[in-house]
Design brief:
2 helices; 3-stranded antiparallel β-sheet; 5-stranded antiparallel β-sheet
Length: 170
């Protein structure tokens, strides 16, 4: 009898261990587009870039000064992207705004394969791109060339204008 009870107990434990229960819940994953742009002097130091143009030779006024790879841009994007540039200024102007030069004296292009476009107050497309492997957010870089041709007839002074670069999803 003892053996029978022991056998039934073990059998009952075995059947109980075959019973199953489960629980479930819904996992939610939210993916947001990531877009970032940064201007670098070089890929190592990552310092902000300044682009001085000093016109001290007569020929430079008519032929212009070109700065190849004048800026290095770092892009971090998880979607197809476009970088555009424009000015928030109405013109290049001196410190007292007593003299101005048109924005169009500055032309910008992507170093590899780009075409120069003059600076205006409207967006000009500089370049476009896609994330690497189209799987993960990617850090990419490209360079831009600057060319300034002021011509003659302007007062000797230092002139400035703001240039804004904007990255947007495509």
């Amino acid at each position: 009898m003892k053996r029978l009870l022991t056998l039934l107990s073990l059998l009952g434990l075995g059947l109980a261990s075959m019973a199953q229960t489960s629980a479930a819940h819904t996992m939610e994953v939210e993916l947001s587009e990531t877009l970032g742009i940064q201007i670098l002097t070089d890929l190592v130091s990552q310092d902000a870039v300044a682009n001085p143009f000093v016109f001290d030779q007569p020929l430079e006024y008519s032929s212009g000064i070109t700065q190849v790879a004048g800026a290095i841009f770092s892009i971090n994007a998880s979607v197809d992207w476009q970088v555009a540039f424009k000015s928030t200024s109405t013109a290049f102007s001196n410190a007292g705004a007593t003299a101005t030069m048109p924005l169009s004296i500055l032309e910008i292009k992507e170093t590899v394969g780009g075409t120069y476009a003059g600076l205006t107050q409207s967006d000009q497309v500089l370049t476009t791109g896609t994330p690497l492997l189209h799987l993960l957010a990617s850090a990419q870089s490209f360079t831009a060339d600057y060319k300034i041709t002021p011509g003659t007839g302007y007062d000797a002074d230092t002139y400035t204008a703001n240039v804004t670069y904007t990255i947007s999803a495509q």
